Structures are given as structure tokens and as C-alpha cells.
């Protein structure tokens, strides 16, 4: 990739569209024959029939607010579509959406038969990058959607984190913080996506290595309405209380013992330690984080 192309990609979606050598504006030909349509001057807006436009198969966003779509549709009915969508031309009467799916959906709701569009040419790689970059730049995108888009760009566009940061104009640490969200348990990811907890809560939770402890603190956030600052304090106390193991490392656990320990940890939402010596004797240790946590464990034991 040339230096010019890298700089263009770093500017975001607009640079991808405007600086690409593959741009091919297209002007609809009203001639009813099957002759090749006339090519218009660069930068022109073309009126494209809605039934000739298919959605972008690389669109990472599938959740659209129906109320917001209805409001946009009402605006389009009154004022028309102000900002054209962008499509790529498949053939003379077939187009594929690059960006603007929300505007496309609202235009259909508004009853439009055609829509103003910029017509470009782009390969699948460019299509995916354009869709992902446009998606990431949305103001109302939740953190999990951003993280998933980042991960797709790494996996499907063969980018490194530094290159990804250049594409989306974010530093590497910011990109890494988003990607780390995808390592959280599914229940926590769903809460981030749905607004149950904030990005600040999530940043505190991702510093904890143990998923069981992550889930326990997550439940406390929901039940007690803990602030981000309070969660950060809990995490700091937890990390300070960690005892570093010294000396000889214990013998590896058997598969059966490891499974029992994992099952107990899942049941109690805590990091359970199961110790068994060569004579078959041992102990089960269930640590707790607070008096409330202890009472929760005792209730589960029918104490």
C-alpha cells in the first residue's frame, strides 16, 4: 500500500471515498435501451431507484431504532433527503449500498421511489472497510458494536492494531481497551451493549483476570447501583489483597479435580480453590470480597 493510500485511509471514510482512484460517478441514462449508461462528471449526485439498491452485505450494524427511523422518514417526506447515500455499481441497473443504510431504510418508509446517491466502484475489501469505518464514526454506537467492528477490521482486513488506529483516528491504547471488552463474559458484554453498565464500569472490570470475580462485581453493580469510582475502589482493593505465590509451584491438577474446581467456581461466582494431597485429604477454599458476599455464599450453603 502506498504512502498516499495510507494517509487517505487514516482520514476516515471520506478519504476512502474521495481520494480513491476507483471512484466512478454514474449518471442515470433515461434512454430505455440497454445501452451503457452515461458517465457523469466527478462528484455528481445521481438519482437511483430504491428497488435497484441492495443492502451492504458487510454492514456490521443490524440494530436500528425504529422510532428514530420513523422521525427521519417524516423529515424526508417534508424536506427530501438532504445527504445522498453512497453505492457501488454492480451493473447498469443494480447497485450495492456502501454507506447510508439508515437513510435508505427511512426513505423506503417515507415512500420514496428513488434516492440521491454517489456512485462509486469498490472491491469487497474496500466495501468492508468503508462500512466498518462509517459504523465506528456513528455517535450513538455502543462500545460492544465498536469493539466488534475493530475486531472485524483486524481479522478480515488483515490489519495490525497500529494500522487500525490510523484508519479510525484513535490511538493504540484506545483500540486495545475496546478490544479487551470482547474478553469479558457474555452477560457483561450484553449489559454494555444494552446500557446496563457504562464504559467506565467495563474498563474497571477488564483489569480483573478472573471471570468469576468479574461476574460477582458486575452483579453488585446492578443490584446496588455502584458508581464507577466505587467499582474502581473495589477492584484496587481486590488487586492489593492478592497473595503472590512463592516457592515451588504445586503439582498440576488432574482433569477431574480441575473440573470440580471450575464447577464450584461457577456455582458460587467466586474463585474456588480445591486442594487434594496424595493421601486424598484436602480442603475447599471459597474466598469472599465483603460481608455481603459472605452472607450470599452462606445462603447458598443453607447455613
Automatic annotation (TrEMBL):
Matching Pfam families: HTH_ParB, ParB_C, ParB_N
Residue span of region Disordered: 21-44
Keywords: Chromosome partition, DNA-binding
Annotated ParB-like N-terminal domain residues: 46-136
Family the entry assigns: Belongs to the ParB family.
Protein name, UniProt field: ParB/RepB/Spo0J family partition protein
Protein's organism: Mucilaginibacter calamicampi
Amino acid at each position: 500500500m502506498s504512502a498516499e493510500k495510507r494517509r487517505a485511509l487514516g482520514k476516515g471514510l471520506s478519504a476512502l471515498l474521495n481520494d480513491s482512484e476507483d471512484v466512478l460517478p454514474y449518471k442515470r441514462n433515461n434512454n430505455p435501451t440497454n445501452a451503457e449508461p452515461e458517465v457523469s462528471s466527478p462528484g455528481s449526485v445521481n438519482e437511483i431507484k430504491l428497488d435497484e439498491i441492495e443492502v451492504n452485505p458487510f454492514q456490521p450494524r443490524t440494530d436500528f431504532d425504529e422510532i428514530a427511523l420513523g422521525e427521519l422518514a417524516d423529515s424526508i417526506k417534508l424536506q427530501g433527503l438532504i445527504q445522498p447515500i453512497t453505492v457501488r455499481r454492480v451493473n447498469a441497473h443494480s447497485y450495492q449500498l456502501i454507506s447510508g443504510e439508515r437513510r435508505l431504510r427511512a426513505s423506503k418508509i417515507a415512500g420514496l421511489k428513488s434516492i440521491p446517491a454517489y456512485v462509486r466502484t469498490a472491491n469487497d475489501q474496500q466495501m468492508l472497510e468503508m462500512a466498518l469505518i462509517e459504523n465506528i464514526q456513528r455517535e450513538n454506537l455502543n462500545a460492544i458494536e465498536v469493539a466488534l467492528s475493530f475486531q472485524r477490521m483486524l481479522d478480515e482486513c488483515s490489519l495490525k492494531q497500529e494500522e487500525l488506529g490510523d484508519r479510525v483516528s484513535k490511538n493504540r491504547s484506545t483500540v486495545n481497551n475496546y478490544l479487551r471488552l470482547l474478553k469479558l463474559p457474555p452477560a457483561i458484554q450484553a449489559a454494555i451493549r444494552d446500557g446496563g453498565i457504562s464504559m467506565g464500569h467495563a474498563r474497571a472490570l477488564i483489569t480483573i483476570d478472573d471471570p468469576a470475580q468479574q461476574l460477582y462485581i458486575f452483579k453488585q453493580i446492578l443490584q446496588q447501583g455502584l458508581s464507577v469510582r466505587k467499582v474502581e475502589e473495589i477492584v484496587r482493593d481486590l488487586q492489593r489483597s492478592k497473595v503472590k505465590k512463592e516457592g515451588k509451584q504445586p503439582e498440576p491438577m488432574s482433569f477431574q479435580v480441575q473440573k470440580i474446581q471450575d464447577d464450584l467456581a461457577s456455582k458460587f461466582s467466586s474463585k474456588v480453590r480445591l486442594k487434594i494431597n496424595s493421601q486424598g485429604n484436602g480442603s475447599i477454599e471459597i474466598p469472599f470480597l465483603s460481608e455481603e458476599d459472605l452472607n450470599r455464599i452462606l445462603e447458598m450453603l443453607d447455613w
